Amino acid sequence: MVQKKDWLIMAVRDTSIDPRLLESARKHFREKGFLGAQLSDICKDAGVTTGAIYNRYKGKEGLFEAVVKDTVDSMNSILEEAKTVDPNKLSDKELIGVWDNTEENTRLWNKRLMDMKDGLELVLKCSEGTKYSHFHEQWLEKMSDIDYDYLKALQDRELADKKISRKELHVLVSALWKLYTEPIVHGMSDKEIEHHCKVVGDLFNWSKAVGIKK
After folding, report:
1. Alpha-carbon distance 157 to 139, whole Å?
2. Non-local CB neighbours of 132 within 8 Å, separated by 6+ positions
3. Which residues fall under the DNA-binding region feature (predicted)?
4. pLDDT of the residue at 11
């Protein structure tokens, strides 16, 4: 007869448990949100006991964190990449190019977001009740700070004639973020997203918005 202690050791060594748990968790969090998902249902679909969760994660929130970790890391890496560039060291041409929001740039942004579609959908739609419930708002605040440094450099060189405040820029960045992420929230197909990229490229013109001088 297998003793409880021996069973726990066996569970730790069973490397097939984690992928099953995470896949089941994704399904239930996506369908019911964090607050509505039940650990018992997640375990049942994964074919494990609730003890398997507590042996690996700090309850339901720890499981949610594990499911979205790659996405959160990817989103934070976007900020870190942006911080590595000093806008004051860019040439005028390079600085103006940052604000060239063409259809191709929109497509590249959408591709990057689509690569983390599953996790991003959970963060945007299903994270209420977790520490990630305001992650996208906090991320936008940080991105707006970075973008404002670029805008300030543009204005200091008198390359743009519209005096947009930090607050107004945040509103604009948030609006563009909404345009980028809504296809994911609404489950649009790749073909629909391709069309959407063209529409966004035509609709959102940063050069005009900040008044870049021709």
Report:
1. 28
2. 64, 65, 68, 72, 123
3. 38-57
4. 45
- In one letter, which amino acid is 133? S
Q: In this predicted model, what pLDDT tens digit does every residue of 22-34 receive, in sequence order?
A: 999 999 999 999 9
Contact assessment for residue 31 and residue 66, using Cβ atoms and an 8 Å cutoff? no
Distance CA 211, CA 192 (A): 31
Quick check: 184 and 117 in contact, CB under 8 A?
yes
Rg value, the chain, Cα: 22
DSSP state of 212: B
d(CA 155, CA 184): 34
d(CA 211, CA 208) in angstroms, rounded, equals: 5
pLDDT in tens, 73-110: 999 999 999 999 999 999 999 999 888 767 777 778 88
Counting Cα atoms < 13 Å in the Cβ hemisphere of 26 gives 15
| Cα–Cα distance for residue pair 141/119, rounded to 1 Å | 20
Exposed / middle / buried, residue 117 (Cβ in 10 Å: 0-12, 13-18, 19+): middle
Q: What is the CATH number of domain 1-56?
A: 1.10.10.60
Looking at residue 194, what is its pLDDT? 80
Q: Is 165 helix (H, G, I), strand (E, B) or coil?
A: coil
